């Protein structure tokens, strides 16, 4: 049905034409398209009209409307004015929010602006989380910034869900049951097993026959499926989603991780930072940047075994920020050579070291604003969700360190 109606404009709706003059399209995504509209009863008053994709599940539509009605218009959360259902079509009327393009912002934001941007994002997330809502799709495209007015807006609650707070404890019964063969580019360094704490990577031979090859063995085919909520944008999904921890481990911390990846994009002037083809490649990318040991330990604590071969030491985020922006040549220095980094990073033929072990020294070489941004990044991107800062903790950190 979506394909049949995909080119049908909102102007074909009687309700829309009676109340609004349709303008330009503002954006589109998986869950619908957004247009500028002018209210007929209030000339020169602009709104944003979102038409929900016809294939969207009613429960997601109801959830989005409920959250926006309850929380919209406060703490940088987009305000909703009306909603209307016409047969199988649903329209939402929201504030019209002019904003700067992400391309423009990435190339020109100052460190002070980045701090302000992240502060306002965490104001929104803190508000949502204290109302037991997880956004699930935090990314730059969903947090708009009007530079001239210095205003912000968190949008797109199509994946949001209510959350019932529970104690974060280790669950030894949690395991990954459904393991598919990874793609060749990820399979050389990654394998997953459903064993617990007693797993010995040095002594135990994998029972699966399809690790590292482009096929699924008889053993894996007959493993029961493990169903977890994987809603979110690839590249922004937290480790607990990628490693298929039970849904009880999916907490507001997944929004904090996505906010950290958002900040990483601002610091590196890249969007998106990660472009994984699948979950296996996404895990391999996280191991390269954050180190394989922290991911393996987080998995072990939830009764899952992650095997990363060869192991990765993790990356100095301060050095990586400088290497990605001006270029890796700025890292040149006496004795600063590393064979591991020479193999891991493209164009690093001189073997400049970016290993995680050098991060404390690298932080000392940053100015105060850069150091605060990297500190926020580190606290957001803790692999184990238990160790991640909450939104209110990040806000306290910013207030204590703001200059």
Report on this model:
- With 403 residues, the protein is of the alpha+beta class.
- It has a domain at 2-95: 2-Layer Sandwich (Phosphorylase Kinase, domain 1), CATH 3.30.200.
- It is built from 16 helices and eleven strands.
- The chain has helices at residues 2-5, 14-19, 58-71, 102-108, 111-130, 184-187, 218-221, 239-242, 253-268, 279-290, 292-301, 317-324, 339-344, 359-364, 368-380, 391-401, and strands at residues 20-29, 32-39, 46-52, 80-86, 89-95, 133-134, 143-146, 151-154, 161-162, 190-193, 305-308.
- The chain has a five-stranded antiparallel β-sheet. Strands 6-9 form a two-stranded antiparallel ribbon.
- It is globular and about 70 Å long.
- The termini are far apart.
Strand residues, percent: 5-15%
CATH topology of one domain: Phosphorylase Kinase, domain 1
| Percent range of helical residues | 25-40%
Strand order of the largest sheet: 1-2-3-5-4
Question: What is the correct CATH architecture of one domain?
Answer: 2-Layer Sandwich
- The rough form would be described as globular
The major sheet is characterized as: 5 strands, antiparallel
CATH superfamily of one domain: Phosphorylase Kinase, domain 1
């Amino acid at each position: 049905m979506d394909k049949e109606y995909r080119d049908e404009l909102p102007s074909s709706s009687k309700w829309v034409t009676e109340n609004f003059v349709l303008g330009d399209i503002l954006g589109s995504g998986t869950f619908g398209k957004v247009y500028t509209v002018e209210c007929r009863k209030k000339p020169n008053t602009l709104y944003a009209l979102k038409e929900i994709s016809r294939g969207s599940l009613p429960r997601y539509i109801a959830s989005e409307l409920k959250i926006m009605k309850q929380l919209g218009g406060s703490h940088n959360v987009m305000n909703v004015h009306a909603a209307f259902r016409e047969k199988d079509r649903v329209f939402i009327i929201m504030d019209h929010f002019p904003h700067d393009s992400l391309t423009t912002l990435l190339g020109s934001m100052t460190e002070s602006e980045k701090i302000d941007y992240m502060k306002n994002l965490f104001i929104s997330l803190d508000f949502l989380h204290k109302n037991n809502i997880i956004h699930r799709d935090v990314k730059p495209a969903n947090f708009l910034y009007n530079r001239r007015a210095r205003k912000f807006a968190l949008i797109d609650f199509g994946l949001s869900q209510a959350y019932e707070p529970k104690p974060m404890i280790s669950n030894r019964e949690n395991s990954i049951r459904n393991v598919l063969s990874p793609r060749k580019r990820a399979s050389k360094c990654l394998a997953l097993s459903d064993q617990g704490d007693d797993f010995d990577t040095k002594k135990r031979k994998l029972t699966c026959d399809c690790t590292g090859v482009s096929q699924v063995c008889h053993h894996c085919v007959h493993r029961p499926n493990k169903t977890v909520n994987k809603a979110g944008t690839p590249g922004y999904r937290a480790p607990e989603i990628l490693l298929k921890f039970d849904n009880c481990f999916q907490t507001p911390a997944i929004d904090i991780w996505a906010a950290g990846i958002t900040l990483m994009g601002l610091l590196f002037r890249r969007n998106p930072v990660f472009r994984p083809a699948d979950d296996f490649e996404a895990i391999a990318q996280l191991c390269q940047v954050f180190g394989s040991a922290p991911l393996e330990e987080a998995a072990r604590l939830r009764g899952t075994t992650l095997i990363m071969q060869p192991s990765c030491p993790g990356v100095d985020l301060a050095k990586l920020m400088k290497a990605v922006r001006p270029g890796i040549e700025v890292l040149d220095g006496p004795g600063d050579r590393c064979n591991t980094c020479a193999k891991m990073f493209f164009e690093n033929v001189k073997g400049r070291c970016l290993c995680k072990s050098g991060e404390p020294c690298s932080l000392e070489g940053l100015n105060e604003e850069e150091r605060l941004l990297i500190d926020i990044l580190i606290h957001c991107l803790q692999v184990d969700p238990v160790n991640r800062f909450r939104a209110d903790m990040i806000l306290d950190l910013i207030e204590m360190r703001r200059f």
